[in-house]
Amino acid sequence: MHHPWNDTAPIYRQLAQQLAGQLLDGEPPEGQPMPSVRALAQQYLINPLTVSRALQSLVDEGFLEPRRGLGMYVTEGARQRLMMSEREAFLRDEWPVLRERLRRLGLGAKDLNWESH
Fold it and tell me: What secondary structure letter does DSSP report for 33?
């Protein structure tokens, strides 16, 4: 599986964001182990040290916990905490820009269909 990395952020940060997105989707479920560093390095075609750094950043944020000899596990409540954090970041950073763009384009709530893909 190839994942195009970009120059906007370090690869470990981009990987941490992708893994956080998977946690938001419930994969893996809370209390369950993350794939191993080796498995993630093979999946994403990157250095295991980069994977370790990404996982450590998720540990630092409280979404994963290391268990000696067992690997990294998703903490209880991680999905809810991650969702709240992502919502706050969206409302603070992305929504004002998006709202201004919608205003400039003359789009209102009636023009937006949340259910369509």
Answer: B
